[in-house]
Amino acid sequence: MPDPWQRVPDATVTALACGKYLAHANIGLATAACAVVWGGWPLLGKLYVHQYDTGALAAAYQVLEDAAGDLWTGRTNIADLMAGLSAEQWPGDDRRDFDAWMLTLGSDLLSEEMSARLLGIMLLISASLLFAFIVYTSAVVLRLVWLAVQVIRASFGGGVGFVAAQVAAGKQARVLFARLQAQEARLTAALNGIATAIATGLGAKVTKDSLTGDRQGLLDLRQATINQGPALVWGFANHVERNLTAKMMTGRSPLFSGRDARAGTGTKGQPRPMPTSPHDLTPNKWQLGAAAKGAMDVISGRMPTGHLLPDRYESGAYQGYEDIERRP
What we know:
Layout: H1 10-16, H2 19-34, H3 41-49, H4 54-83, H5 93-155, H6 159-211, H7 216-227, H8 229-249, H9 285-300
Region (Disordered): 252-283
Transmembrane segments: 118-139, 145-169
Keywords: Membrane, Transmembrane, Transmembrane helix
């Protein structure tokens, strides 16, 4: 029977690391296609949002697996030590107290080992789901490129051919957008389920420890929240900035709730209505500006709000926050 905790091959982790670059290529290729297929612009907003570093999640899985391996080694050493001490070599109450203490330590190490392994697997599954979604978006982008080729071919027939091709391609791009939204909803549901499982497991562990008199977990959670305060603040700022940029890419003004920046109409969270003329498709100022900003975000690797995040030391602590209260 295969070992359920067998480490995933490094080649798999390396392959997952390619997701980041594939996502970059997708948005670059889609931008070029949208220069021809104007109705494809709303897709850019989706591709911009789904720029994931799947390699980082896979690397985190490896770190947790290494930690679990160290904990397993510790448990093994404890078992060997206890087995190597016979009752004749060390009798009495001290020996019984020692055995009880070592058994408790081994149990704690086992609990931490299982937590590390399960969290690592959750992260690996998340990386795999995100990678699969990026591959799916690649198929959508290739379809958009094919529509661009069709528009270019029709353009050789004159202005009428170009207009008709733009309208037809815009309608198909609208369908691609709807399909991408459906897959996005499935991805979100799956990731929310994983996040809920992680939070539930952590909460159950901390609660169990607290009920048995060990409040170390609560203290660790408290201190981690304090230490990572800057990341929480600027992470929220990044989230807001990202969503506003993506909204502008769909042709929506961030100043109006879901309204078309050109016509002042529309449905919140949706691209403009099904095109009937090139005028319904031509990019507006919000889309052009957001596309330029999105390109800079992807190339630089961080959004403007990301530059406000304080630098960190190797320990993970943020520079400028050294005086935050720490548990002894």
